[in-house]
Design goal:
The chain has 176 residues and is of the alpha+beta class. It has one domain: Nonspecific Lipid-transfer Protein, Chain A. The chain has seven helices and five strands. Strands 3-2-1-4-5 form a five-stranded mixed β-sheet. The longest helix is centred in the N-terminal third of the chain and has 28 residues.
Length: 176
């Protein structure tokens, strides 16, 4: 039992450290030209979500653009689906925008926070065509974690748990 507690404490310490690294490294990465960011990101998204794309989960994006705005990183990506593939663009005529800080998107992706809670608490916001934005929010919520590569899902959950502890004030946030 004691070894399990120590393991959990070590795991939380490492997760907090990695989140702190993310807080400092992601703003630097966000400065990389988006054309260079897109090179690995777009194929990676299509590979990770290949099954969901085949199953029509992303059909709501067919020919429509959503903007994902990471406020704290001053970084936005526009995303659509064309010919069965996700496409990213720095700028596009988006119909709706979902905005929040990177940790809120991590909480959403890792399912550590209910999407509705994040929106009702205004930690995430939808602007523009609210109905379309809600469809995309529901799409994100409907993604099956079992379809993700297991190690990716484990990493998301692990980091998301650390972010959730920080959010709930159960651990001290690292000083800048």
């Amino acid at each position: 039992m004691l070894s399990q507690i120590r393991f959990a404490q070590a795991k939380n310490t490492i997760a907090r450290w990695l989140l702190s690294v993310g807080d400092h490294a992601l703003p630097v990465v966000a400065r990389v030209p988006q054309a260079l960011q897109r090179l690995p990101l777009q194929p990676l998204l299509n590979k990770v979500f290949a099954s969901a794309l085949r199953d029509g989960v992303f059909d709501v994006l067919e020919g429509r653009w959503i903007r994902l705005n990471l406020r704290d990183l001053n970084l936005s990506w526009c995303m659509t689906m064309r010919r069965g593939q996700l496409e990213l663009a720095q700028n596009a005529p988006f119909e709706a925008s979902i905005s929040g800080n990177w940790r809120e998107f991590l909480l959403l992706a890792s399912r550590q926070e209910d999407p509705d809670t994040l929106f009702f608490r205004r930690r995430l916001s939808i602007e523009g065509d609210t109905e379309f934005g809600l469809e995309v929010k529901n799409l994100i919520d409907s993604l099956d974690p079992d379809e993700l590569p297991p190690r990716l899902w484990q990493a998301l959950v692990w980091l998301g748990e650390g972010a959730a502890l920080d959010t709930r004030g159960l651990v001290a946030k690292p000083s800048a």
